């Protein structure tokens, strides 16, 4: 396999294009279990019938684990917005419509979102009182089984030249409450400093889906706590401020 044409670089991994394939190559110390779990999540998401790049294989390249999948030619929505700011509303409407379509799907073998959130909260360095409040809040949320992407951002939606959208990066996929997935996307906008974009996104999603904005925002302390386990110092202050908010107006 050719690992010369790098197209993206992330923490603990690099992504290469090799003809009609994409190779996601993980660092040598990356957990084998996490690689296999990501591939399994991707395969289960594929089975829902959504437009997702085909998974080809999980392999090792020079001692490093790799996931090989279909290369999808096109531009992601983040780049399309940057290149065509006048079409912002058009692209954001498409972005929200695709997320709503994701939430119509079911994948019964995926991990439960609530279980994942509980584990993440337990791994934080928050005090016991705060953890208890978060556990209590999480336990009180309705039990849903909708497909949740877990990292749904404009950069994870590729639009092919013919207009067909493809959704990538299913490593954090779970089944659970769609509003938690929306809160995660809202948080990702905010962490990038795009507060205006975050509010526009949330207003648009809630309007289109008929979801109360306050209901989505009630998930913000939980998803913020789960993000704390990444121990990103640049994010810590805003995440802690959200974790400590009891009610949103």
Write a compact overview of the structure shown.
By secondary structure, this protein is α+β, with helices and mostly antiparallel strands. It has ten helices and ten strands.
Keywords for this entry:
249 residues, 46% helix, three-stranded antiparallel β-sheet, alpha+beta, globular
Count of strand segments: 10
Taking Cα atoms only, what radius of gyration do you get, to the nearest Å? 18 Å
Mean pLDDT over all positions: 95
Question: Helicity range of the residues?
Answer: 40-55%
Helix/strand-derived category reads alpha+beta
Largest sheet strand order: 1-2-3-5-4
Oligomer: single chain
Biggest β-sheet description: 5 strands, antiparallel
Alpha carbon gap, first and last residue: 53 Å
What does this structure look like?
The chain is of the alpha+beta class and 249 residues long. Helix content is 46%, strand content 18%. It is built from 10 helices and 10 strands. The chain has helices spanning 32-46, 77-83, 88-102, 113-123, 128-139, 178-191, 195-209, 213-217, 220-228, 233-243; strands at 6-10, 13-18, 21-26, 55-61, 64-70, 75-76, 146-148, 157-159, 165-167, 174-176. The strands form 3 sheets. A 5-stranded antiparallel beta sheet has the order 1-2-3-5-4, covered by helices on one side. Strand 1 and strand 2 (13-18) form a beta hairpin. The longest helix is centred in the N-terminal third of the chain and has 15 residues, at 32-46. It is globular and about 50 Å long. It starts with 5 loop residues before the first strand and ends in a 6-residue tail after the last helix. The relative contact order is 0.12. The model has no long low-confidence stretch (mean pLDDT 95).
């Amino acid at each position: 396999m050719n690992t010369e044409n790098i197209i993206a670089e992330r923490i603990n991994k690099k992504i290469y294009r090799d003809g009609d394939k994409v190779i996601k190559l993980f660092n040598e110390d990356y957990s084998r279990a996490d690689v296999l779990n990501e591939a399994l999540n991707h395969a289960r998401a594929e089975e829902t019938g959504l437009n997702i790049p085909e998974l080809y294989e999980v392999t090792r390249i020079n001692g490093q684990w790799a996931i090989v999948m279909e290369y999808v030619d096109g531009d992601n929505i983040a780049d399309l917005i940057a290149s065509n700011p006048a079409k912002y509303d058009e692209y954001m409407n498409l972005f929200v419509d695709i997320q709503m379509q994701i939430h119509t799907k079911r994948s019964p073998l995926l991990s439960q979102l609530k279980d994942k959130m509980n584990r993440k909260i337990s791994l934080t360095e928050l005090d016991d009182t705060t953890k208890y409040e978060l556990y209590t809040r999480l336990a009180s949320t309705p039990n849903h089984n909708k497909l949740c992407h877990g990292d749904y951002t404009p950069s994870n939606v590729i639009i092919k030249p013919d207009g067909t959208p493809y959704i990538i990066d299913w490593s954090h996929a779970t089944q659970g409450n769609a509003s938690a997935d929306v809160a995660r996307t809202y948080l990702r906008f905010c962490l990038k400093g795009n507060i205006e974009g975050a509010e526009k996104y949330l207003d648009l999603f809630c309007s289109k889906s008929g979801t109360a904005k306050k209901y989505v925002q009630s998930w913000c302390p939980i998803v913020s706590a789960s993000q704390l386990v990444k121990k990103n110092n640049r994010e810590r202050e805003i995440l802690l401020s959200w974790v400590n908010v009891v009610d949103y107006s």
